[in-house]
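Sanity check. The docking grid for zinc ion depends on where the pocket ends up, so I'm generating a full predicted complex first rather than guessing from homology. Inputs follow.
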Amino acid sequence: MKKSLRLTAIIMALLLAVGSLWTGSAPVSVYADETPMLISTRLKVGAKSHGFTLNTLSADDSADAMLQVWEHDKTGAKVYMLVNDDPERAFGILFKTEPSDDTGKLHILEHSCCAASDKYPGLDVFFDLSSQGFITDINATTWHSSTNYYLASLDEQELMNGADYYLDCAFHAAVRTNPNYFYREAWRYVLENEDDPLDVTGVVYNEMKGSLSDIDSYTLSYVFKHLYPNSNYTYISGGVPENILDLTYDELIDFYNRCYHPSNCSAVVYGDVNYDKWLEKFDSYFGKFEREEFKAPDKYVPKGNYGTVNDAFPVTADTVDLSGRLLYIWDLPDTLTYAEYTALSILASYENEITSPIMQALNASGIGSAYILSPYSYGDQRQFLVYAYDADTSRADEFKKIVDDEFAAIAKSTLDKETLDCIFEEEALAEELAYNTNGIGVSCVSSITNAIEAQDIEGMILDEGIMEKVIKMFDGNKVLTLFKNSVIKNNNKLLYAVTPEPGLAEKQDAALAKKLADIKAGMSSKEIKEIIKQNKAYNEWNDQSNSDDSTLAKLVTADPAKLDVTAPVYDTKLTKDNGVTIATADIDSDASFYRYSFDLSNLNKTQLRYLNEYIGLLGLSTTTRTQEQVSNDSRKYVNSFNARIAYQTVNGKDIPSLVISFYAFNDNLEKALDHVFDMLYNTNIEDPYNAAYIAQSASYAVGTFSDPGNMNSLIASAAGAYTSKSSALSWYLNGISEYKFLKKALSSEESFNKFLSGMGSAMKNVVKRQNCVIRVVGSAKSRQASVDSMLARLPKELKKYKKGSVAKIGEKSKTRKNVAIEMNTQAAFLLSLYAPEENKIKDTAAEMVALAIMSNEMYIPQFRYLLGAYGAYCGATSEGLVYAQLYRSPSFVEPFETILQTPDYLEQIAALIDEEYLEGYKLQLISQLITPTGKWNMASNELYYLASGEGHGPEYELAAAIRDLSAKDIMNAVPAVREAFEKMGTVVIGSADEIESAKDMFDKIYILK
Ligand SMILES: [Zn+2]
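Predicted complex below; grid placement will be based on this.
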């Protein structure tokens, strides 16, 4: 029962609030004496360089990171440069853009602006760059008040090439002289013959159709129409599909000319960079403009209590599940400081514990299936909210009363000091592990961007004492006074109730069809011919090849032959002790990573199912500890605790395993193990409070199955189940049969009791020494200590160890090749996946490059540009998995036929490929494979392969194989690609109409409404 999936969107807002800018030391690098960091330390405020003046310099003199804020003298543009020694550098450029309607013009501009420019002509250079540049990340985002373009690279010159591309797009975009980019990204009429019905398509049009047909995304977008009436906050920055059709090309260009000016922009540069070179680059663009004044929009004046607002969410007439969403939301005062906002976030996290009175009251009410309290932010406004999932919206008043009463009680409560200490201690371990990830530069660019947005660099980035300020607010419960004043007594609020309305989806479809028919009926034959002509002209334009070689030569300057693709070496050891395989790696750190896997092949399928439910509940009270104790110990002693069931390769054999992993400070190891083993063995299923919570979690989990976004994350395992045992296992545990299992468990008291007792005995035959593997990444001392403690805790090997029916999961006869899932969605999701039985490095390398080429040369032009699908990709993973996907597509039947032709198309173009053409694709794939992800992650990945008997992880060997590929190898990959596409299983999520009309295509159709 994974609760995290749908909560992620909201929690992200919380993370942004709590997570401060990390400026620690970076992964291993070797430097000359004059590092960019060293040069930076000699800077003083007031320094001048290339038309910029240094305004602010972070006070940090520990010299491992420094923030410089430069202002362009002529235009006022600001450049924020966070210099440290991280080799994965990042760049971002941000424009203030605010919507004045629901046409989504800022979002459409984001898409069309970065497609091409005067200096970089092409259909969509962005996709060429993202598929062929030596870059680790590239994307652009739009939110309510800004548009941000960013990228990251392991090479400073490549980063600067990409930055030059973005700068040229920002100030000399191709869309300003060519409306085809508008037709592609916004919308266009589709009409081939005079007698056809008029249709429309467009990338953003389809993207938003998909996005707003998710009830959570709908609720969290539309609520602002009612919370901030008569202001620009009421507009949906992404665009509302029917309003997108009102936008004209001229309006878009007018908006571009108004907003994309240096005086309205900020740039961010991160990592091991030379500030002087960057300022020179910025000046070469900014210096051509004269300063302009950009007036901030009028400050929003809160207008009081809006009571309850009811809204209908469109679903089809046959929808059975009519539970909706309840959202109680406050507009937080603009005077709130960042430290205060952070304190409210921590208070919310405290009150989100299942033991808190407010959660107990909400859970007992039965109004919804899950609840969350959280601060939130929208544009430059901040809010506080309480959200109920799968809610009975007819009980909105009751929900409001519970929240009001409990909020009043919170204001009078005394916060538990021990719990608060645990929350603050949690931060210490998180900080130690902050570099244990990839893409730190992009996260920092995004944190700085948020601070620019809030006009609070001082408070959000430069204030090193922020945590002390926050902790002080919890002294003497000052935070409760803050909560009382900014939330409870705050009258700028509303209760938003969103209820699905069956039949409304059909009504809206019919209205659009009628609108288009009326438009066509009102056209003269000359106008109709004009549209056909325009359509043809668009398709011809789209048929050209993308950027030419000279464009790419300017952007991609790294040489794959010169890249260092040698794997980092870790001090690893593999031993066996009493039947237990032990793999360890030595790294220098106060915290270690622990991963234990236990063989589950003795279980039968039902036992495995119960075990899967049981491990989803770890964290509830145990027979030896109360809920408060379990929650506090979990905060204090472990980080990123995870328990899951998956195939693991051990000594050459694939074994279905229970995998437990976590990080802990070396000094806390014993306490961490006590905590973990107590949860594993003693979680108290019978406790009445826990049982009620379990019932509610099960009902929440059932609710997630009718959510297209959630199902989309599951379709990879559904599509792969046909060819891969590990996908079949994951589809068995989390797919439709899990849905049916939970529904049955909730159908009567008797079946629920059976469900509980099944879970109660789930751990009985697990966690023995059989095929147990211990993997530890840490200091030499912590490794030995952890192995000794673990061995002492592990029960002996079972003498009689019989294989259960687990191995039968994924037997070919029982899995279906082509599956459809009917849901309430305005856009289709399609995924096909194939896993080969064995995967050889050289074959995988050739397939990865061949399919990256197909993705860029076939999928994007065919599916994104012609059809209007938001996402279209194919590729191969480092494990040799071959995939093809369409995401938020207007249809799937025809595109599916086209997907099946991928091998033919590959065969045709492979004959034309030369060595030079391959270089960019090689660079892109190599950079994905060798991006550092932190010493714990990288060493533990290495340990996995050590214990598996395969030696090393495939990444570096693959990178070397890709580097050495020739054009002939791509041709030789055709048969393997052909086999993959013939054997693939396909899963489609779509509307009932389209799936029913293509029902012969599927072996099985599920209906989830
Ligand atoms: Zn978009």
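Relevant for the grid: The mean pLDDT is 89.
Also worth noting: The CA atoms of residues 706 and 1008 lie 5 Å apart.
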